[in-house]
Every structure is written in structure tokens, then in C-alpha cells.
Structure prediction request, 255 residues.
Amino acid sequence: MVSEVDLSRVRVVLMQTSHPGNIGGVARAMKNMGLSQLYLVKPDLFPHSMATSRASGADDLLTSAVVVETLDEALADCCFVVGASARLRSISWPLHNPRECAERMLEAGEEGDVALLMGREQSGLSNEELERCNYLVNIPANPDYSSLNLAAATQVLVYEIRMAALSRLETEKTVRKKDYRLATAAEVEGLYEHFEVALTDIKFLNPASPRKLMRRLRRLFNRAQLDEMEVNILRGILSAAQGQKYHYDEKKDKP
Prediction:
């Protein structure tokens, strides 16, 4: 089961949406990905039965949607804004793909609310509206057919936000699960020295040409980033292989 992530600081802002069905489609995409803040700037028709129908169970997002008259109101308390642009305009503005954009938004979200600004169905965002954004995001679609429905484009972007948040959550879990500190360089070097002696003792390593094997072992264990307990276990195995007495104590190795 995937743990839920907190995306309560990420809001989606729709600019003057003309078709109420698109509002419902965006609400559904948001709820699928765990987002709940929906802001509507001067929608043509809302509330509307078509929005409810397209929301397909995300009615709570429509009910809680904040309807405002101006973009200023929608962005007033946001510390970071990303604008979605289907066209790469002449306006020079920092541009990210959806994956990069998601990472940036989550970083900024540690400080306050962040907004994903989606433009009108036909004309997108005006240059003045794009200038309100810290960054622009562009979905690298097929250049021969790059037109995406508003709800579909939102789905792509909020999916990437969710995946970035899940990746962060997994990283935090991995860090929390570490029971032992990482081995020091001296401890790891001691392990490699022990490997060379032990492998020579059991006649696996030719002492006349140890370099290639030892280099491969170094690459292998350097990738693993051994902790202190793992180094101790490996050295215990080597000692046992050399015929020395060694007993692994499970009580000392608590999960």
C-alpha cells in the first residue's frame, strides 16, 4: 500500500475556464493525485451540472473550490507560481519540463502555498499572466500534435507532482530506517585489507596479481555504501572462511 503524501500546499488555479466540463475533469485529475486546493479565476459557467458530471466523484473539490474575480486574489498568499504554457513564446522566462517543475514546487512548498496556473482552453495564458510566474512548465508532447485538453494537461502535471512527493517520502523512510551509521573510510579500508588477506589464505586470490579482483570488490562495496554493522558482518564471514572462530550475534543486530 502506497503511503499518502501531503500536497495540501499545492493549489491548481484555472484561468477563465470556458467549458464547465473541463473544471470537473481537472477536479477529478486533482483528486486522483491527492491535491485538494482548486481556485477558479472568473469561470464562464460555474457551478454547473456538466462540471459535476465530469468530476465523477470529486464533487467535494468542486464544493470547496474558491471562485475569484482576479488572478491577484488567486495568487495573493502563494510564495511560488508555475505557469503552464503549451507554446514556447518569444518571452524569455525560466522554463522547466513537468518533472523538474514538480521538484521546484515541492521545494518551495516547504515555505508556503504554491500554485500551478493553467490557462484558457483556446488561448492559454497571456504574457502578462505568464510574467506573474516564477517558472513556466511545458509538456514535451509530440510536436506534430501537441494540443492537450485542459484536464489532460493538468493530469500530466499533477501526476509528476505526486510522483516527486512519493519519491521524497521513500527517501525519508530510507533515511529513518538506517539503524547504524555509515562505515568510515578507515573501516572500509580495513575491510578491503581483510578481503585481500582472507582471499589469499583460501587461495581464491593470486597475491601476484590482486589488482583487478580487488578493484572490482571496491567498486561493488562502494556502490553499496556499507554501514558499520555490514562491515562487521563481512569481516566475520572472512574470519570464518580463514578458519578463525567467529559467531554472529543476532541480538546485536536489531532491525
In short: The chain has a mean pLDDT of 89. The radius of gyration is 27 Å. Residues 151 and 233 are 54 Å apart (CA to CA).
